[in-house]
Protein: C-type cytochrome
Organism: Pseudoduganella aquatica
Amino acid sequence: MRPSEQLSKRKPASRVRAGLAVCCVFAGLHGALAAPAGEAILPLPQAARQDPAKVALGRRLFSDARLSGDKRQSCAACHNPAAAQTRTQAQPRPGMLDAPTVFNAAFNFRLYWDGRAATLEQQAGSAIENPAEMAARWADVLRTVEQDADYRRGFSAAFRDGVTRANIEQAIAAYERTLTTPGSRFDRYLRGDYGAISAAEREGYARFKQAGCVACHQGVNVGGNMYQQLGVMEAYPDRDAAARRFKVPSLRNVARTAPYLHDGSAATLEQAIGIMFRYQLGRPGSKEDQALIAQFLATLSAPPGAQP
């Protein structure tokens, strides 16, 4: 069934129309991809090619615990490749936010939950010194990298000026830009392979749109391109969170990134969907709604490096 045919079966809510308008504004951030008629979600493009030498350095740095203050914490400790680049447990202490996935982060308009980093390079640089993340000092990091003969050779080959803070940030960002997951079943559906998702998954997508989820979760990353208040229709029961606006998270690979929400308080995808129905959409979502939308969201998963 074509996407436009599925839409014709339901009367779109006003918030869905608003979401489609927002999508038109943000679609231009991601190049010349054209969405199928009536669709708020765009297929994920292939990542831009990166310098292999810088990527190799960034991959090693990403997993190197010596970059942290206590020499035990690496980027990969919170962005676990086996868990779609996220942390597998709920927040380790009150007030600490869950680690967003690094998959497809290159397509987000800002980084971190509060959007304080504009680029992957800025995010990598600030994480080193953040006491809640790597808790290191750049002077110590530079000394550690400079004293490693393999790193020295690698940086000399990849950069004219060798080991510097800017070059470490560039290398990590180059690696992170390769962590894209085009080629999901849903992307194939958007590109015209209408048998790529099941009837139940199509129904889940129809309910996702009908409920108004696409007002915030749209574009190539199915999110990641705007801020939104947590608790639009009802105050969320977390005083700190209710006072803040968060960057809307991408739903790419979301079926693999439990636990959910900014604090990791939702153990399952269905539970997270139910919370969104109540606090963001202002109505209860039935168990059937939750199950079908979760089935749709599973179609957004793909391994890194798959072909679009």
User: Anything to note?
Assistant: Residues 1-32, 84-93 have pLDDT under 50 and may be disordered. The chain has 13 helices and two strands.
